[in-house]
Amino acid sequence: MEEFKSGFVAIIGRTNVGKSTLINSLVGEKVAIMTNKPQTTRTAIRAIVNKENSQIIFIDTPGIHKPKTKLGSTMIETAFGSAKEVDIILFLIEANSKKIGMGDRIILEKIKQAKKKTILIINKIDLVKKEELLEIIELYRKEYEFSAIIPISALKNSKTQSVLEEIEKLLEPGPAYYDTSEYTDQTIRQIAEEIIREKALKLLNDEVPHGLFVEIEKMEETLTNKQEQIYNIEATIFCIRDSHKGIIIGKNGTMLKKIGTYARQDLEKILGIKINLKTWVKVKKDWQDQDTIVKKFKFN
Questions:
Q1: DSSP-derived 3-state class of residue 80
Q2: Of 10, 15, 148, 156, which is most buried by a Cβ count within 10 Å?
Q3: E runs forming strands in 104-228
Q4: CA–CA separation, 295 vs 300, rounded Å?
Q5: Where are the domains of the chain?
Q6: Which fold has domain 188-297?
Q7: How many CB atoms lie within 10 A of CB 49?
Q8: Strand ranges for the chain from DSSP E
Q9: Beta strand 54-60 with 45-51: parallel, antiparallel or unpaired?
Q10: 5-173 maps to which CATH number?
């Protein structure tokens, strides 16, 4: 019988390179929220892939960017901190990069310091010609001895299974750290907060920047009149400006209602249970620099 293997794998890269899309594709479930905005992921989210003879625990990290607040600094600390604690690193870059930019160069140096087994994942291969792809492969091959280099399209779910196969080859014998029925270590409360934030970011476009923070104030499981299980969830969306509050609520409350409806529908699919969701909006101008809030996003 084949020996059971397990290990922790950090996905690291610049903002908006497709880390959350990749992790959801690998797991086959929605674990990380996705928007087309940079810095969507704020914490190190663990996602679990259970196979017949292995358990892979992925850690989706915040994108590397130049921080401007305590929150930003914590996100960078989380990304690099997770790289030190894992068995394998997946370094995700974009196929349409013509050179190694400043952000990728910083990550490369951290990888060299960590001395971990690293797989280079070249994402968005559908956007470039084969010759351009070969050039970027050669460019990075000269920089570091990667365990493997895999070109993929996370959005189109192309070649992502190759990533799992390569990881399995690199894993060491080990136990199952989580129950084999689990696919994330996030609590229902954390999942709800992230889904509400995702819907707000998507629906608000560029009108409200990343000054959003969602907190579940109340969550209880009860029974309906038909004796069906239902979660009653009350959530507050915090923003940093009074003008943003009006935009989030919308005329006659239409935008807030839309955010709540889309979040509820998504949560019902993910959790497989009816949801009664109530949302409010409050202004907390300096929350991105408040230690009590920012510490929630630290890697542990």
A1: helix
A2: 10
A3: 117-123, 148-151, 172-173, 213-223
A4: 10
A5: 5-173, 188-297
A6: GMP Synthetase; Chain A, domain 3 (3.30.300)
A7: 19
A8: 5-13, 45-51, 54-60, 88-94, 117-123, 148-151, 172-173, 213-223, 229-239, 274-283
A9: antiparallel
A10: 3.40.50.300
* Bridge partners, residue 184, by sequence: 47
The whole-model pTM stands at 0.59
Q: Contact, 171 vs 5, CB < 8 A?
A: yes
In 3D space, the residue among 103, 141, 102 whose CA is nearest the CA of residue 120 turns out to be: 141
